[in-house]
Write a structure and sequence with these properties.
This protein is mainly α and 156 residues long. The protein is built from 8 helices and no strands. α1 packs across α5 and α2 packs across α7. The longest helix has 23 residues.
Length: 156
Amino acid sequence: MKYEQLVESASRIYSPDPSLIKEYSEKLAMILEKQNKRMLNRKDILDLVGEQNLDLMLDNHANHCRFIQSVIENLNPEILVDTILWVFRAYQSRGFKQTYWAAQLNGWLVVLEEELTPSSFIKIRFIYQWMQINIPHFSILSEAQLKDYLPDHHKL
């Protein structure tokens, strides 16, 4: 899938909802805490993120919460896609595996379903499902972009 197709598909995933925005904002700290605990307790966490990257993963989770808050307040499809591609490039270049993204997104969905009301969860679930479905596309595009930024002797 091309970049333009990702942006176009992102434009259809969510319409702002005041009740979700309010509830997510109020529960953000608890959602983050539960996701961090969930991921840190995984037996395969070091395989997913690398031995030196646990703090980086926790930073990513905090940034993720703030970013999702901005997405549900005001979806901008280009910013959503650009940010996800940047995150893939940045974290994969630090040793995060592609399988981390699926594990992370699945974890968010579990935590969000536990913490949000059913009506709010249904609304936010579409964002996460869109991200999950597009992991392979994000990975391919981010790898291509990373190769474009590296000098020839460092290309993957």
